[in-house]
Structure formats: C-alpha cells, structure tokens
Amino acid sequence: MNKIFKQALLAVATTSIVVAAQAETTMVIVSWGGAYTKSQQRAYHQPYMDANPGIKIVNDDSASEGASKLRAQVEAGNVTWDLLDAEAPNAITLCDEGLVEEINFDKDLAPAPDGTSATEDFGKSLISDCFIPQIAYSTTLGYRSDIYDVAPTKMADVFDLKKFPGKRSLEKRPDPNLEWALIADGVDPKDVYKVLDTEEGVARAFAKLDTIKDQVIWWTKGSQPMQLLADGEVAFGSAYNGRLFEAIEVNKQPIKMLWDGQALQLDGWVVPKGAPNKAEIMKYLRFATDTQRLADQAKFISYGPLRASSAPMVGKHADLGIDMAPHMPTAPENMKGAIFYDFEWWADNKDDLAERFEAWLAKG
Amino acid sequence: MADAEAENEVITTADGIPLKESLKKALWERKKTALLLVAPLFLFVMITFLIPIFDMLIRSVDNSIAGEQFPNVVVEIRGWGLDSTEIPDEATFQALVKDFKVGAEAKTISRLGRRLNYEMSGMSGLFRKTARKVKKLEAPENATEAMIAIDKKWGQLDIWRVIKRESTKYTSSYYLAAVDAEKLSDGSFAVKSEDRQVYLKLFWRTLRLSFTITFLTIILGYPIAYLLSTVKTKTSNMLIILVLLPFWTSLLVRTSSWIALLQKEGVINDMLVGIGVLGDDNRLAMIHNETGTIIAMTHILLPFMVLPLFSVMKTIPPSWVRAARSMGATPFTAFVRVYLPNTIAGIGAGGILVFILAIGYYITPALVGGTKGTLISNFIAYHVSTSLNWGLAAALGSILLLLVLALYILYDKVVGINNMKLG
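The joint structure predicted for all components is written out below.
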C-alpha cells in the first residue's frame, strides 16, 4: 500500500509540475522575418517576455501574405494568429472587411510620457480605425558600389539600361514599381495617382516596365534582394531600407543606397478578429507601442517610429554605436524626392492591379 | 446421360445447402475480412483525397456568395433582362439599398465586391465606397437617385449586366477565365485581350516542360539504372545509396544549391570563365528562366525514374542478351530488340511518375524559374494563397486534372496500363 501510495504521489507531483510549466500563454505574432523580426524581438518581444514570465511569444514570418492568409483563416473559422504586422493599405482593406478588431486608441494605447494622448501622438498616421501605427519604412533602391564607374543618382536610373547595365531586382508586386515607372516616364510625382487611376496611365506604367522586364529578377521576401546584391547577381535593385541598412552598415557589403524615389510606407499592427489570446495581446500592445519601445526599435533597424514623442529619443545603434537619425527614411535630407503612398487608393485598387501585374509577369 | 442427371441434380454440401451457395458464402466471408482490412485505408483516401477533390470541383462553379450577400437583389433582378436598354427598376434599387445596409453592417458585402471584381475591374472599389456611404441612407423614397448620387456607376448598364449574370447559384465564369475567355455584356463569349491572356500559354508551357523533363530523366536515368542492375550486388548497394541520398536532403536545400551553382556569378559560370570557354560578359543565364526549371526539376525527379527502371532491369536475365549476340546480333541490335522492349514497363512506370510529379511541382519553378519558367501550378498556388480566388484556382486545377486524365487514357491506348511494372 505504501509503495503504491508513494508512486501515485510521485506521479501526481510530476504531472502538476508539467502542467504548471505549460500554464504559460503562447502568443503568435506574425511579421516579415529577417532583420526586421530580429529588431522587433530585441525591442518588443524579449523585454515583454522578460517582464512577464508566463508569456511566450512565437514569431511567424508570413506577413508578406498576411492579408490573404488571415482571410483564409477567418473563412475556415480557425484563427491562429494573435497579432499581424500589416502595411497601411492592407490594414484598411482588412478593417473594411471586418477581419480585424477596431481599436480605441486613447483607451488601448499608452499616452506619451508628457501626457499627450495616443491619438495626438500618432497624429496623421492613424489612417484606419483598426491600424495601430508602428514605423515608417520605405522601399528604396540599392546598388553595388563596385560595379558602376559613375554611380546612379536618381530613381529613374534603374530604367536606364545603357548607362547602368546589368540585372535589376524589383519587388514582385505592383507598388511601388508602377509609381516608379510613371515618374521615370516623366509624370510629376504629385499627379502619379491621378494618372494611375486611368487605363492609359496603367498601360503607360507597364510599357515603361517592359523596357527593363527581361533584366529583372523579382523578389518576394525582404532578404532576397540583399542576397542577390551580395552575390553580385543583380547590380541595382529595390529593397526595404532597413534591410539595406543592415547589409551596408552591419554586414559591410559593397552596396550603396539611393534615397531618391523612396516609397514611404506606414507599417503597424492589426489584431485579427477571433484571435486566441485577445486580452493578453492587448496588454502586449500597450507595452509594445509606447514611446520608449518605438524609439528602442530604431536602435536595431533604420525604420522611423511613428510617434511624435519617440522621434527625439532615437539614438545610436545598439551594436554599432552609429547615430541612427540620418538613416531614418523620415530624416529631412532623405525626404527629397520621396513618394508618398496614397493608402486609400491602393486599398481600393490593390487586388485588381495585383492580378494585372501577375498577368503581365506571365506574359513575357 | 450423366449430363442430364447432373442438370437435374443440384450438388449439395454435407448439410444439404447447394454447393454454389455454400461456396458463395465462404468466399463472401473471405471478402468481408479483406474489405474490413482495406476499410481504414479506403476511408482515409475518401476523406483526404476524394472529398477534397470533389469540394474543389464544386468551388469552380459555386457562386452562392451572390445569393448570400445580395438576397433581395437576386430576387428582384430576375425580372430584368440582359438585353435591356434601361437600368433596373426602383424595386431592385430598394433591394440594393437593403442588402447593402445589412452587408455593410456585417462587413461582409466587400466579399461580393471582390468576387464581382474578377468579372469587371472597379467593382471592388465601388462596393467599398457604397458600403461606406450607404450607412447614412435612411429608407430613401427614390433609391435609384440615392444610389446613383453615391456613385454614378450604379446608373451604368454594364455594372448591372455583371450583377445579373453572376446572380445565379452556379457560374461558368471561373472556367471561362481559366481558358482566357470571358463573357461579354451582350452574353457572347470572347477571348480576353492580349495582355490578359495567361493560362492557355501556361498550360502549354507546363505540358511542354513536363514532357521535356520526363524525356531527360529517361535519357539520364537509363544508363544509371543499367549500371546499377549489372554491377555486383555489393557495389550496386553502395550506388543505390548515392541515388537515394538526395531524398534525405530537404527539397529547398537542393533547390537553393542549384541557385548557387547556376547563377550568373555562380560556380558553373565562374568555372567556365576561369578556363576561358566564356568571356566574362558572356556568362550563361541558366537560372530564373526555363533552363533553370528544367535542370533543377530533372535533378530532383531523377531518382523517381532510376528506381522503377532499376527494379525492372534487375528481372531481365543477362543470358537473353548473350543469347541474342550468340545468334549473330550486333550489340546494338541485341540491345534494341531484346533488352529495350523488356524495359518498356519500367520506362512507363518511371515516366508516368515523373510526368505527374512534374506537372504539379511549384516550389522549384517558383524559386528558379523567374517569370519564364513558372508553371500553371504556381498560378494555382497564387490563387489559393495570395489572391484568394479559390473559384479560379479550382477551375485551373480541374482543367489540369482533366488534361492528366486525357493523357493517361492516351497512354493506355498506346502503351497499355498493364505494361507498367514497378519491379
């Protein structure tokens, strides 16, 4: 009897330890992978996990298909994601389709240290009721500094095959390639969306892209263009500016960046409807989107925080010690020649143009 | 005499039951056991294979979203003809307002907008705009005017024609799109404009590349299998491990290593430039095009050809070729007339395996094919996971299935299915 009793006690004790160990909550946060997710891990996830031992954050790198995957999950009735890192046009579409939660910014997000409400602190970047702004990033052009005798100076140079021969790499989606094509073809940046709204405008953009089409390698994930540039497979190409920063400053590749024509995008969080750990994720969001955290992320990657109160707190890179301010897409000297996305227009036309873009790609 | 007796007298078993029935019963018992043993596998195949395929086939014609999102409009628009020269009546517009109000509140109406956008661009934007604005509309007396004030597209005939056409429970629009055709406003069929034609070309490219890859695997795999089957068992065991080794490596690793090899600045080009065969600016473009797809996929599918061929070749006694030689045949004739016909079964099995795999592969073409080497499977994957146009993905998949079945029937007529052996 004694022996059995002891064994039973041991079994119960072990089980309860195991059960207690698994009593932690796991949250799935979907982002873009590579250097970007690393920066989020260091600035947001790790500090939050350190402060809350019962929470485990798991990274999923499928944000580039995030909108579609979320639609599929909701349609299947099984949402497994707690938080999705989405760009502004996708956030608008997802919000309109009722796939993500509406946020009460002043209630759910922390105010600035000096007391300014979250709504005022985020200002114009609050482009939708469901979108919690995080950072401003841009898709810019990078080139190998050791291949061209005369370096390219403006965005239109990517369409100039005579002066700058060699393969290019462009993102496998209509934006910002269509805008770039039109501007390189002579359209005033202010009128780009008016022109794109017409059938002739779209045809004109595709015609301009046709002139370089067979020299382009199309990338889908943020780390691909960096690999292609590093291998020397392409001489000139577009990439997210933070990844270019990582390659140039951290990995010391022979690559240089062109700020002209940078296509500024807003990136932030959306909370899927039916997320498994809604209460926990809202607590996490309050932490991860406060002033200090957004300034912290700038220590690891060159994306600009969208809170007005975070901007003056942007300091030096955590590992390299270099000043991050001049590397921000929003730095004044980098803003010359920047293109501002029309988020509403893209939210309305994204699906249609994406289909036309795929058809154009397959044509050649 | 004996026959007449046998006819009148039914043979019975010891307990008086006719032999035929006893036999049937005994066989049935055996069959029942066999069926029960097979039942789990059968159920598994039904659930994971047949039911999803059936579901996909249904999706390619399913248009129930129209009835779900536009319940009232679908009813009212029955009275409106496709050839009408005027927009629908006030009752239809009232129904439109009602359906939009419900759909905008539930935030589901934009799904119908996206679906209709496949038929005519601009529908998605129109639906989103209308959903935003219709919330302020309170039981208007003149719904027609109110909707046209929100967006003048509601006063256009072609918008209504699209809605009318896609108001039925089943639709053929996905199949039409899959063969690069479309239904025009007046109901006739037309081929899509040049810059939107995608799928027929892709189907052709998929079949062409798959045949090429199958042919290449036969050419490359035959000598390997021959070597494996004629060499000592100990050596052949070692060699078989080498053939199987790639299976133990992740597919993505194999594909990525091809990228490193075939790149413009990759190993092969560097080597050729190094020994002087190519000039530095004349490097071969072996990747991000069809060549890359063919090379990488031949490599990946080669073991599927080698193994069936090997098993078949192992069953051919070497004495047959020797006998042919001893009767005066040249080595070539002995090979062609004695050895080769006996391996047809292996070629058939390996060929079918490689062909069917090649048709469905999309990871490798996506990574190494660029835009010229992508196959129809890439587009099916794109429509399933990115554009979420499941109707079109299902239609493309069904057409692919039909093509493969047609080729299978052709193969049966020419070579014969029974001529297929896996060992």
